[in-house]
Amino acid sequence: MSFVMVDIEADGPIPGDYSMVSFGAVIVEPGLQRSFYGQLKPISERWIPRALAISGHSREETLSFEAPAIVMQQFADWLKRETKGRPHFIADNNGFDWSFINWYFHHFLGTNPFGYSSTNLGSLYKGVVRDLFQNFKHLRTTQHDHHPVNDAKGNAEALLTFSKQYGLKLPR
């Protein structure tokens, strides 16, 4: 099993009605050298300007991005090539990120390589440190700038740091 840290940017709060604009994924391992980045053409006429602005892209720019079916197939191929066994999805806000990735995989490819479960990084950290009021974000090295690969990398750095500090066993 391989842990894959994922971060997405979207132009609204839910998949289907709104679009995933971009996403990044990083294999959680020392060095964090293996990553994937996808930019997706909108699937809906609906979008919230304030939500899209977080991604740093304009609506006009997103309309020139790749067709979602192509990007999701590229991501599935990358996961198959770069991971051992079934990849395991982990994210800072897995409720949001997972919902888009899961919906896009099922809608465009008919299956999700991650299966039906995911892990929330923040909840995992709270359990490891045994304090529901703690946050892992101070453990990031890479700046959180809403570029999804950078954000996934920073979250993976935090996971590697606290797993080492607290003896949390991770997949190899």
Automatic annotation (TrEMBL):
Gene Ontology terms, MF aspect: nucleic acid binding
InterPro entries on file: RNaseH-like_sf, RNaseH_sf
Highest rank taxon of the organism: Bacteria
Name under which the protein is recorded: 3'-5' exoribonuclease
